[in-house]
Amino acid sequence: AAQRFNIPKDKIRLKQDEDVIDTWFSSGIFPFSSFGWPMETDDLKRFFPTTLLETGHDIL
After folding, report:
1. Residue 7 phi, psi (nearest 5)
2. Could you tell me if residue 14 is inside a domain?
3. What's 19's DSSP letter?
4. Residue 32 near residue 43, CB atoms below 8 Å
5. Is residue 25 part of a domain?
6. SS3 content of the chain, % helix, strand, coil (to 5)
7. Bigger pLDDT: 58 vs 1
8. How far apart are CA 53 and CA 4, in angstroms?
9. Structurally, how many domains does the chain consist of?
10. Taking every annotated instance into account, which residue ranges of this chain make up the domain Aminoacyl-tRNA synthetase class Ia (predicted)?
């Protein structure tokens, strides 16, 4: 931001938006929510019988 707007770094204050959820959270929660989570539906128990969801071996 400092370089783009030609402002000294010590004059820049950045604040993260509190309402933004990162893409890993939303992609990880989608399979659960599509089967009725947080309610313990029969489909949720059948397709996700554990508490671990591996979304990609390369990010573990």
Report:
1. -125, 140
2. no
3. T
4. no
5. yes
6. 45, 0, 55
7. 1
8. 40
9. 1
10. 9-59
Q: Which two tokens stand for residue 35?
A: 């089967």
Is 31 a member of any domain? yes
**How far, in Å, are 6, 23, 29, 32 from residue 20 at the CA level?**
27, 9, 15, 20
Amino acid at 46: R
- Model confidence at 6: pLDDT above 80: yes
Q: Does 57 fall in a domain?
A: no
**CB under 8 Å to 26, separation ≥6 — which residues?**
none
Structure tokens at 19: 């309402």
Q: Find where tokens 């390369």 sit.
A: 58
CA atoms of 24 and 42, how far apart (whole Å):
25
User: Which tokens in the block code for residue 55?
Assistant: 């979304």
**Domain limits at 46?**
21-52
Nearest Cα residue to 24 out of 57, 1, 60, 55: 55
